[in-house]
Amino acid sequence: MSVETFVDLNLYRLGQEKCETGHVDILAREEHFLFCYILSGRGVLSALSPDGRQGGWNLAGGQGFMVFPGQERRFQVKAGLCEYAWLEFGGLRAGGAVKAAGLCPEDPVYRCQVPGGEERVKEEMIYLIRHRDMAPHHLMGHLYLFLDALCPSEAASGQEVREGSRQESYVRKALGFIEENFQNDISVEDIADTCGLNRSYFGKIFKETMGKTTQEFLLRYRMARAAELLRQPQYSVGDIGTAVGYQNPLHFSRAFKNTYGISPRKWRNQQRRSS
């Protein structure tokens, strides 16, 4: 659902499911965080730990768990009907917020430490799911409220989310440069130069922070901007390609299809039919 126009925090997918005894979900995320909250019922979460051992957690209504980028988790309904909600999110501040919530790859289970906290987590998740068609900034506000509810205290949340300083400042400067120059013929070296860093070191901290290489992020950013313009019928597909940095219409169409699975023209037609 997201077109990645937010840098600090971004909401990608969300939903709510009911599953019966024995149902198994394999949950894997390459780039983003996935949080699941059990509304009712029971289940078992399992995953291979970094040292290869099998870990497992028994979970019930009012608990949740986080799937971290690069992880694979297995969730099996234990008895009766199990209902759970889930949110997939990412962004510059996502890692700090998750850390502030006391969640880590070795212990991904959410256990509320504040009276009434689990109700706030549930309420914000359900609100986001039921209002998924609201304006993006409205949804981002409630995503921040969800993360605030997830953290054991305001102090911990603020401290962790504001952490990260020098590395984050480099990435933030790079993101500002991309936002201002994405329509031009810019390279990774150009972006690294604006931060005063060599390409190798810059590439390392960018991927650590954003979960993508600089080139991958630049491509996704351009395609997200292109998708926004395709919703506006006054612009031709060729003009939109030029506006996001592609002088060759064929190269633009290929890049868009690699990102969204269909050509820019078909994507525009789909949006028209669904609106």
Structure in a nutshell:
The chain has 275 residues and is α+β, with helices and mostly antiparallel strands. It folds into 2 domains: 10-161, Jelly Rolls; 165-274, Homeodomain-like (Arc Repressor Mutant, subunit A), CATH 1.10.10.60.
Give a description of the structure:
The protein has eleven helices and seven strands. About 4% of the residues have low confidence. Strands 1, 2, 3, 4, 5, 6 and 7 form a seven-stranded antiparallel beta sheet that branches. The protein folds into two domains: 152 residues, Sandwich (Jelly Rolls); 110 residues, Arc Repressor Mutant, subunit A (Orthogonal Bundle). α1 packs antiparallel against α4 and α5 packs across α7. With 275 residues, it is an alpha+beta fold. It is globular, with a radius of gyration of 20 Å.
Helix-strand blueprint:
Elements: E1 10-19, E2 24-29, E3 33-48, E4 54-60, E5 64-67, E6 71-90, H1 94-100, E7 109-110, H2 117-130, H3 136-150, H4 154-161, H5 165-181, H6 188-194, H7 199-210, H8 214-230, H9 237-243, H10 249-260, H11 264-274
Antiparallel strand pairs: 1-6, 2-6, 3-4, 3-5, 3-6, 5-7
Helix pairs in contact: 1-4, 2-3, 5-7
